[in-house]
Amino acid sequence: MSTFDRLLVVATLLAARVAPLSAQAVSEIKYEANASPLVLPPSLHFGEVTGIDVDQRRHVYVFTRTGARSSVHDGVASQLFEFGPDGKFIREIGKDLYGFSFAHTVRVDPQGNVWTSDEGTNMIVKFNNAGRVLMVLGRRDEAVEERAPHVPGAPEPAPRWGGFNRPTDVAWDNDGNAFIADGYNNSRVVKVDKNGRWIKTWGERGKEPGQFNILHTIANDAKGNIYVGDRTNRRIQVFDPNGALLRVMTIDVPYTKDVNVMLGAQPRAGTSALATSGAPWAICITKGPTQYLYSADAVPGRIYKLTLDGKVLGVMGDAGKGVGEFGWIHQIACPSENELWVGEILNWRVQKLTLRPTQGQR
Length: 362
Description:
4% of the residues lie in helices and 37% in strands. The chain is mainly beta.
């Protein structure tokens, strides 16, 4: 990004609405949780559930990191399952697919096509309702290529021409263009048209407005604006479909309990994204005339309900392994304002949540 572009982004942000940065005292949203809403055949199992979405027919899609046919790093270790409205298993989609290795998210577009983002193969794959591949974006490393060693503290590699580097998610505008969160290492948003032709790219690693540090989740509202969960920077950045920054939202809700991360000692605040309340791991936006945004963090393990301009209306949940508790929510589906589906990494499960908000939480 050039100096001129940075100045333009800063000027845009100053003119935009920015959510208040002070701590927001909000009330708890009551909810009921079903920790077994989906039924797998005896021979199949969930691993880390990183992706979940619900289509207009109320079919549920789960993208999970499993041990199936896996040699850990080089084999297939992801499976995509489809369930009916009654929660019964329908089929596995893309069995042994070349584009599956390390599942990240699954999304259903407005036309009912299913898109998977795979962090391990650096590929985005689009399926139709019949489960056939319609389009492939990106390309996985060839088997003859040696993996580059990871050196802690070394500069991030430059974005590869024509490819992604650990992509995480996808969203769309009203013209059918797709926006890929490219994600861990490339630190950018990639916009392609409905035929997969590259249109533009914006963003780079950093802390300034319009820069990113792990684009972990992405969603769109009814106007086609793009919401990017900038996880390590602990904020959600909102852009128009052309990449102009509209606003930046942060979630600052006090937490007075002991943090339960379920793994080791309590982390010190500010040491990582895991240790920071409000860091957006997963976001979704409801449909309907009044839209709401839901965002989940890993620590302290809560879900937040927001207006699209960043006001926090309510909060729910804690980290844990019990029903209604959460172990690193990785994706949220929100088919309606008061129905959420969450996929968890640490608990290897899907939970369906039915919310009971009060009048002030709407």
